[in-house]
Design goal:
With about 70 residues, this protein is an all-alpha fold. It has one domain. About 85% of the residues lie in helices and about 0% in strands. The chain is built from 4 helices and no strands. It has helices spanning about 5-15, 20-30, 30-50, 55-70. α2 packs antiparallel against α3. The chain starts with 5 loop residues before the first helix and ends with a helix. It comes from Streptomyces rubrogriseus. This is ATP-binding protein.
């Protein structure tokens, strides 16, 4: 996993481990329509989290570029 992707990976892992996600998963299991609606409902929150993490991703990408250039 590229270092610049670690922030995204951590965000998704935190989302998947949350109690809210577990409850939502239980409520929508076996119902493709409800699951699709849940994904759509979570989209804006996930986009906001990813946007808020942009400075960290940018920093990680710069560090990775510097590491590659130093090799």
């Amino acid at each position: 996993l590229e270092p610049s992707r670690l922030v995204n990976h951590r965000l998704v892992a935190a989302l998947l481990e949350s109690a809210d996600f577990a409850e939502l998963h239980r409520e929508t299991a076996g119902d493709p329509y409800a699951a699709a609606m849940a994904v759509l409902a979570q989209g804006s929150a996930l986009r906001r989290m990813l946007e808020d993490s942009r400075p960290a991703r940018d920093r990680d990408e710069r560090a990775e570029r510097a590491r590659r250039e130093a090799e």
